Amino acid sequence: MVYKLGFIACIKCNGKILRETFKDGESVVRIPFTSEYEISMKNLETRSALVKISIDDVDVNDSQIIIKPNSTNVLEGFLKNFHVTNKFKFIEKTEQISNFRGDRIGDGLIRIEYTFEAPQPQITYGYHY
Fold it and tell me: Which has the closest alpha carbon to 1: 77, 13, 9?
């Protein structure tokens, strides 16, 4: 689970939140091999958040995800036209898989990028008598 500036993201496997461990100054979440997982995101801000997710350097969604203020969104798989096509599944990288798709630097990484919408300007009226 990661919390930063009013945005929470966590990985769930079998309905349980997987906790992160810290190794060499980096946070690591360990997902069991051959298990399906989902990404849960919560926006605690009063502004909407625009989210972009990539797994193994492949974009998860063909369009961007908008999470409304104070709401939660759970993503179970790759999105195409706002429908889940393939569920997320963590598999062991075997020699056969390496020969088929090659070795990439982003293998095994889940990247969640988000930006909040610009704050609305506050209009104040001053009454002078």
Answer: 9
